[in-house]
């Protein structure tokens, strides 16, 4: 059974701080990695994807991938209350996308 | 507007009464998928389709059926719903799987309650 693990949280950070979200996966054959954001009652929306070791930056978001450690993370700089949501890590295995259970992020003013 | 639509958005039904949740996308995507989302369990794939007339089981297919007769539509069928199928259901689509970082676009979700 291929697994994707996330801490369910909540992760609480003050406005303006860096939020760090983590994800581990079980299968070394994983091909690509995605971070989705899901607001309560809404559908997931893609924030970033990464498929090479290292960092990938997009605005306030940075995804980090370490395939040797089977670890992927998402950093959110200058966190805003509007970033409060559940963040889902997803890992691609051939033609399937396996999701973690998500980490709930709360950004307080 | 490029989108994935699902109907109905909310449904309350009774055990054993057959139902269909429709899913349609207007992006000419090859790949379509159904997920269910339950508290503490996250998003779990029910069925997926890589193209017309090609479907395959995901991780939790028991109690569900799908069909893919047209590229744009991928209905989810519950022949005899049971209370353990009460959940939030999402349909998703993407260009395909040849490109490993194709984004999956999600529909708005269908909240199903089986009494």
Radius of gyration of chain B: 13 Å
Average pLDDT figure of chain B: 93
Structural class of chain B: mainly beta
How many distinct beta strands of chain A?
Answer: 11
Give the chain pair forming the largest contact, with residue counts: A-B, 24 and 24 residues
Percent strand of chain B: over 45%
Please provide the count of β strands of chain B: 11
Main beta-sheet annotation of chain B: 7 strands, mixed
**End-to-end CA span of chain A:** 40 Å
Q: Output the helix-strand order of chain A.
A: EEEEEEEEEEE
Q: What is the distance, rounded to the nearest whole angstrom, between the alpha carbons of the first and last residues of chain B?
A: 36 Å
Hey, roughly how much beta strand do the residues of chain A contain? Answer: over 45%
Decide which structural class fits the backbone of chain A: mainly beta
Query: Oligomer, anyone?
Result: heterodimer
SS summary, helix count of chain A: 0
Overview of this structure, please?
- The complex is a heterodimer of chains A (109) and B (115).
- Chain A is an all-beta fold.
- Chain A has no helices and 11 strands.
- Chain A has strands at 4-5, 11-14, 19-25, 32-38, 45-50, 54-58, 61-66, 71-76, 85-93, 96-99, 103-108.
- In chain A, strand 7 (61-66) and strand 8 form a beta hairpin.
- Chain A is globular, with a radius of gyration of 13 Å.
- The termini of chain A are far apart.
- The mean pLDDT of chain A is 93.
- With 115 residues, chain B is mostly beta strands.
- Chain B contains no helices and 11 strands.
- Chain B has strands at 4-7, 10-13, 19-25, 31-38, 42-51, 54-57, 65-66, 76-78, 87-94, 105-106, 110-114.
- In chain B, strands 2, 4, 5, 6, 9, 10 and 11 form a 7-stranded mixed β-sheet that branches. A 4-stranded antiparallel β-sheet of chain B has the order 1-3-8-7, with no helix packed on it.
- In chain B, a hairpin with a 2-residue loop joins strand 5 (42-51) and strand 6 (54-57).
- The A-B interface holds A 8, 31-32, 34, 41-46, 49, 51, 88, 90, 92, 94-102 and B 31, 33, 35, 40-45, 48, 50, 56, 58-59, 90, 97, 100-101, 103-104, 106-109.
